[in-house]
Amino acid sequence: MLRNILKEENLEMLRMFNVVLDILHFLLSWHGYYSFFQLFTVVLLVTFSSLPPTTSAKGFSIKEATVHDLQLAFKRNQLTSKQLVEFYLKQIQIQNPVLKRVLEVNPDAVAEAERADKERKRAKETGSLLSGLHGIPVLVKDNIASKDKLNTTAGSYALLGSMVPRDTGVVARLRKAGAIILGKASLSEGSHQMSSVAPSGWCARGGQGKVSFLVYAYSMFDSEVGSP
Asked: Is the pLDDT higher at 22 or at 92?
């Protein structure tokens, strides 16, 4: 049943299942049965990991690849940055209704990936060296300012639409290294400074973030549940 729910073509069913999951979250935590909810969530998210991995046109498996693996695939023409970005955007579309870990994606991410592919091609022709992060998509937390089409709100609707004057230092360095800002990751609203009673990992914009795999079992009280 879970495998059918998590299939890409059943996104509406997945959204309905997420509503049930949230109700269970509330009821079980209220009655003190969080351990059961932890187990249930782990079973659900391990099912995600058992789905067939997505591969590039030349057979390279993107799923679970390290940055080093990705750079080797770029070098061997097994993968492009555009393919990589499109893969992660699709995974966000499939998994985010349950995990609620990404608040928004960069509408320019695919264009930036195409530019990175052209830069890599020129670098090969000229023998230039590129950074190890060049062409790699990265999520940054929603309290890290980026001067682009993405919001920076710390998970709050109060800051939605506000403009930042510049990239933060870390984003500026990522861009300089050629990384692609894929989107903004969720977090405890206001870095968990808005309320002493709000659940860890909850924010108004994204709802209750959930941690994937077994990490959930020991990060229940981590204020940065939505961190990338």
From this structure: 92
At 66-88, the pLDDT tens digits run 999 999 999 999 999 999 999 99
Would you say 206 and 186 are in contact if contact means Cβ atoms under 8 Å apart? yes
Q: Which two tokens stand for residue 191?
A: 């870095």
* H helix intervals, 51-187: 67-75, 81-99, 109-126, 169-176
Please tell me the distance from the alpha carbon of residue 55 to that of residue 165, in angstroms, as a whole number.
39
**Cα–Cα nearest to 45, from 101, 104, 105, 103:** 101
Other C-beta atoms lying within 10 Å of the C-beta of residue 181: 23
Count of alpha carbons within 13 Å of 35, Cβ hemisphere only?
Answer: 0
Q: Taking residues 48-54, report their average pLDDT.
A: 48
What's the whole-number mean pLDDT along residues 91-114?
A: 95
Cα–Cα distance for residue pair 19/1, rounded to 1 Å: 16
Domain boundaries in the chain? 53-218
CATH architecture classification, 53-218 = Alpha-Beta Complex (3.90)
